Description:
By secondary structure, this protein is mainly α. The protein has helices spanning 7-23, 29-36, 40-52, 99-122, 127-142, 148-169, 175-183, 188-197, and strands at residues 56-57, 67-68, 93-94, 97-98. It folds into two domains: 7-74, Arc Repressor Mutant, subunit A; 93-197, no CATH class. The chain is built from eight helices and four strands, in the order αααββββααααα. The strands form two sheets. The chain has a two-stranded antiparallel ribbon with strand order 1-2. A two-stranded antiparallel ribbon has the order 3-4. Strand 3 and strand 4 (97-98) form a beta hairpin. Helix 4 (99-122) runs antiparallel to helix 5, helix 4 (99-122) packs parallel to helix 6 and helix 6 (148-169) packs across helix 7 (175-183). The termini are far apart.
Amino acid sequence: xxxxxxxxxxxxxxxxxxxxxLHGRPPAEAEMVEFFHVTPPSVHQMILTLERRGLITRVPGxxxxxxxxxxxxxxxxxxSVGAATIRPPPHQIENGRDTGHEAVLVGLGKIQINDxxxxxxxNSLDDSEFIPLLDTLIESFTHVGLSASAVxxxxxxxxxxxxxxxxxxxxxxxxxxxxxxxxxxxxxxARTHWRRWI
Length: 198
C-alpha cells in the first residue's frame, strides 16, 4: 500500500511523533532544524507542505501547535541524520532492544539538553532551579525505556556541558569540582542517581 507521504516527509512526521511522545508537546521548528541539519526556511516549508497534504494540523503563529493526523503505526521508523542526508542506523538487537532506535532517542535527548543550556545562557536561571530542571528532562527519557547505557550517555553529556559553562566562568575549575557543585543542587536520591550514572 502506498503511503500518503514521501520518504523525507515521513521522517519529519516520525520525528514529530517521537518528540511529542517523549516530551508531551510537539517540537519547535528550531528542534527540527537541529535534528535534520537543514535551514529554518526548509523546515518551515516542510511544515506547510505536511499541513497542505492533510498530514498535520497546526495553529499558524502559535508555537508547538503541530498535531499529527496519522497514527504511529502509519509512520516510518525514525532514522538518525547525517549531513543533510538520512542514514539508516545499524539495526542491532541487544537484549530485545533495537539499538538504532535507541540511538535516535539519545540524539533527541542531546538536542533537548543543548537547547536547555542555550536557553539558560540567554535567560539565566539560578543553578538551584536549573539543575533540577535538567534532571527532570533526563528523567523523562528514562520513562520511555532507554537502556541504562543510553541514560548514562545523556547524563554524561549534561555533565560535560555544565563543566564547559563552569570553565567559562572559572577557567581553573576541575571537572570533579564542577560535578560536586552540580550535584549539590540535587536532592539526595537524585544526587545518588547522577553519581551512579556518570
